[in-house]
Fold this sequence. Notes:
The structure holds two protein chains of two kinds.
Chain A: E1 3-10, E2 20-27, E3 32-36, H1 43-50, E4 58-63, E5 66-67, H2 73-83, E6 84-87, H3 99-109, H4 111-116, H5 122-135, H6 140-143, H7 152-164, E7 170-174, H8 182-199, E8 202-207, E9 218-221, H9 222-225
Parallel strand pairs in A: 3-8, 3-9, 6-7, 7-8
Antiparallel strand pairs in A: 1-2, 1-4, 4-5
Chain B: H1 2-12, H2 14-48, E1 54-58, H3 62-69, E2 80-81, H4 82-89, E3 94-106, E4 109-114, H5 116-121, E5 123-124, E6 128-129, E7 132-135, E8 143-146, H6 148-154, E9 161-162, E10 165-166, E11 174-175, E12 181-187, E13 198-201, H7 202-208, E14 231-232, E15 234-239, H8 245-253, E16 260-263, H9 265-308, H10 310-318, H11 323-364, H12 378-391, H13 393-406
Parallel strand pairs in B: 4-13, 8-12
Antiparallel strand pairs in B: 1-15, 1-16, 2-14, 3-4, 3-10, 3-15, 5-6, 7-12, 8-13, 9-12, 10-11
Helix pairs in contact in B: 1-11, 2-9, 2-11, 9-12, 9-13, 10-13, 11-12, 11-13
Amino acid sequence: MVLQLDNLHYCHPGQSRPLLRIPHFALQAGERVLLHGPSGCGKSTLLSLVTGIRPVQHGQIQIAGETFSSLSQRKRDAFRADHIGVIFQAFNLLPYLNAVDNVCLSAGFSWRRCQQERASNKPQRNEAARNLLGRLGLDADTMTLPAWQLSFGQQQRVAAARALFGKPELIIADEPTSALDSHSRDTLLALLCELCEQSGSALLMVSHDSQVAGHFHRSVDFASLAGEGDHAA
Amino acid sequence: MLPKVMLASLRTRRTSAALIVVAIALSVLMIVGIDRLRHQVRGNFASTVSGIDLIVSARGGPMNILLYSVFRLSDPTAGIRWETVEHLAGHEDVKWWIPIALGDSHRGFPVVATNDSYLAHYRYGQGQSLALVQGDWFAGADQVVLGSAVAERLGYRIGDRIVLAHGASGPAIVEHDNHPFTVVGMLAPTGTPVDQSVHISLAGMAAIHGAGSFMAGLPPMPGQQADKPDSVNAVMLGLERRTAVLSLQRELSRYDREPLTAIIPGVQLQRLWRMTGTAENALRATSLAVLLVALLVLVSTILAALEGRRHELAVLRAAGAGRFAVYTVIVGESLCLTLIGCLLGLVGLFVAQWVLAPVALSQWSLRLPETFLALRELPAMGAILLAGSLAGLIPAEKAFRNSLADGLTPRN
């Protein structure tokens, strides 16, 4: 079990009605799951909890065998660096760094990821990053451009490469393809799924778009999480 | 990785960063500059009197005696009789003595009448003696030796003939034009009031006032001792033993043939600095206020930039940055800006010192420091750097809280 949520409740500060109520939800190692639901249903909040940026108020999150939700903020940050890759909807990159440096950001916060890539020094890390970017279809010239000069599709590929660097157990993606046309969307998702497969990472992606469900092992309606649990796709 | 991120991010905001750096540089320049000037002025004053144990003058205010006799900043008191000077010269504790007679001027520069012991015994700085760059010390009553600033400002050469005016300063009311003097020597720069002085012999001084028998460049009449005028304004004394200073000072204050005051220049200088301390503190408070404003600008600029950097910080957080990394990026930035500001301020000050040094020496007889950073300034610089990095703590904490409130994806 790479991710397991139990009895998770979350209220915004000052509100009594829970925004999020998940009795049970689990992700197997290497499993790819799509969570779909309308905007504003609490998907982003769930991802903030799962990535440990926001503290869990009630309930339990286990990631890679660790009771993640009971760790301190500092340990959660370190744990995220080691075990979780994150892809946003947009603004994934530091605009003033090039693609390779953006990918190596993950390496800068996690020694474990460097070891996974067998990259103990900077040239080796850069080489691993270039390799990963190449597999995601970026050519060598594009990799050295500052990120703000890349197209949106290219930026999302760099973001995917950063999330995948060091083969983390879990990749969290928050509508990474919502700004892409359907062709680019499918290309990116196919690449992402392929690389997750290769590195053995589980993928949890949230989207309002259930058309992409074909890329995933399971598709779960966000609203159904509050009820009995998972529905097989 | 983090320093690289910090510097690259800073480069995208280089205009506001440059303005902060300039603000910090200016305040550093003010703080250090004022401190150095103060230190240097004190050093210069102390250097001027460094070799003198006692200054004896007619009874008067000690501060006035110090200011007129050495620094020529005040009006001389009445003279002391030549018999008294001879008494001092013959005193067993006295090693050397320099008579000083004032009251005349040449184009705004004070005229100092003295004798050969001035050249032989006057010491400034770390015991340096006066040196002639051109010509010789005066030998005759119609000869003058110029201080370096006088020579430079008025452009005189050896052999030029000059006329002295009666009165210490301002427009000459009576010009002693029946006694033209000849320039015979020029002194090397000392960074003391000596540079601003015109030196003549006591006989010369006596002659132009018609008290002696020396007239119109003629040699003294037989039987007249031209080197012994009626009176002088002050006598600088060097003692055999410095320990005798206090007892001699007491003894002279009880001198029964005329009322005298003897002052210890170093002690009097300390009193002077206590008097000027308030003004110095006001200046220092002003420059501290400037630094405070610069630091507030630093804090507010970094805070204002945070709003636009939410995505940047979210990316870092998602990649695994914790509180420490966020603090490193933000505090590192403020420390970096403060450091560059400090360096720029010091470089600016160094260049200013270098450019102004010749002017300061010739116009104000002030030797400017040549240091880039003195050891005693290190605590102040350290405090400024510390304040600069502490200033980054507020934005750093705010940035970290923002990232918690934003969760994974920041609001647009």
